Amino acid sequence: MPVRYFPHRTLIQKMIISFLISGVFMLAALMYSIVSLSSMHRMQVNIARNDLAAATTTISLHEVMLTQERLAGRYLILKQPEFRELYEKNTVKFLEGMASLRQMGQGNSFTALTTEYARYADLAGRLFAGQEVTPDVMRQAADSVKKAFEELRAEQKRSLDLKLKRSASQEARTVFIATVLAVGGVATAVVISFLMIYTFALSIGKLQRATHRIAAGDFDHDPGIPAGDEIGTLAQDFLRMAERLKELEQISLDASPLTRLPGNIAIERSLNRRLREKASFVMCYLDLDNFKSYNDRYGYIKASELIKETARLIHDAVMRINDQDAFVGHIGGDDFVAIISADKTDAACRMIINDFDAMVPAYYSAEDQAAGAINGIDRYGVPRKFPLVSISIAALACQPGDYATAAEIATAAAGVKDHVKGTTGSNFIVVRGAGLHET
Question: Which parts of the chain sit beneath pLDDT 70?
Fold first, then answer.
């Protein structure tokens, strides 16, 4: 069973569809890779602008906090105002850093840091205002801020790890899916190419076998290739060619060996086709007069040459009337058939008679030509003179419904032939309906 895909498509259409399918896979792989890489780029930019910046800012704030703790401790002991000024400058830095962190969208640990630092800043403010604040209270507040920093840094680390994990997972997924799509596209192209090559090879092999079978005379062999593409069309052409060869073989077997004109089987087939198609036509029955006496006088070789030349003359005359559906056949001996259209009958008959009468004298000796007759014996054994060979044409006009079979037409034409042979010289009669038109 041959592999068939995309039925009722030409080879070019199949190739285009195949390339489109492969291209869709490859394009999907490319587009997915681009989209995923763009998403990964945005994630990495987010990590660089937020997570890494937040971690760097947090480290800086922690160092500022430590500096503030040292300055507050020295002020607590030495009471020198320059320590207060330095503390306030660092406080500005710390608040600016906290504002940056707030814009980066930190979590609960940032809120806790803000609360703890506010408590520490309040104690430092009271210390610098001269109120009594013990070192233990300051140390505890500073430790709370440091602890809040540790929690914030741990939260930032967890967030960064999660994003990095997502980025790595997306990268792996992108590589996998893009690879699958790319491999799928290549695999699809390979499979489609294999199917096309296999189908072509299988069909060509069938056509080759069909050629051998047809060449061997098996004109009924069907290669079994479905229609649809050029190969299917070629297979149908093979079938039509085989059918035509079968007809030609039958015509050849039926044809006259002498004239090579179609014989009785082909004549009957041509008449039956016109009857089936309910066509109007004229069946011309052509017969040579005085041919037996010519054969007796000049022998069968010369008589055969005359028959052969008469066949060529009739065929050429019918072809000259430009009737595309005209048919010329050889019943046998000196009897011929021409099937033509009604409007060309008179012209064809006159052309045949004129050409025949111009040709016949060349087949006689000068003496017989001068006498216009030859001596011979008729069928009853009585000596008599026979005129030169002439041609009689009985043309029977056939309308749809007049005749049912080819045999009926042949019988009617034979009756008309007997009538026209009763006249002298070459002549023709056209029977239209019930009347006769004689020329």
Answer: 1-11, 13, 214-219, 227-230, 235, 242, 244-254, 422, 433-439
235 three-class SS: helix
pLDDT of residue 250: 60
Judged on CB neighbours under 10 Å (0-12, 13-18, 19+), 26 is middle
Contact status, residue 337 vs residue 283, Cβ threshold 8 Å? yes
The helix (H) or strand (E) run that includes residue 393 is strand 390-398
How far apart CA 220 and CA 243 sit, in angstroms, is 7
Element (H, E) at 437: strand 435-438
CATH 1.20.120.1730 corresponds to the domain 11-190: yes
Q: Select from 24, 23, 16 the least CA-distant residue to 196.
A: 16
Contact residues for 194 (Cβ-Cβ < 8 A; gap 6+):
none
d(CA 152, CA 58): 8
Bridging pattern class, strands 383-387 and 373-377: antiparallel
pLDDT for 387 equals: 92
Write down the mean pLDDT value for the chain: 84
Length of the chain counted residue by residue: 439
Q: What is the predicted pLDDT for the residue at 435?
A: 44
3-class secondary-structure state, position 215:
helix
Quick one: pLDDT at residue 299?
Answer: 94
Q: What is the pLDDT of residue 104?
A: 80
The Cα 393–Cα 387 span in angstroms is 17
pLDDT digit string, tens, across residues 246-300: 666 666 666 788 898 999 988 999 999 999 999 999 999 999 999 999 999 999 9
Q: Where are the domains of the chain?
A: 11-190, 258-438
Indicate whether this model's pTM tops 0.85: no
Of 1.10.443.10, 3.30.70.270, 3.40.630.30, 3.40.50.300, which CATH number belongs to 258-438?
A: 3.30.70.270
Main-chain phi, psi angles of 418, to 5 degrees: -60, -35
Q: What is the dihedral of CA 84, 89, 95, 100, to 10 degrees?
A: -160
Question: What's the rounded Cα separation, in Å, for the pair 228 and 14?
Answer: 11
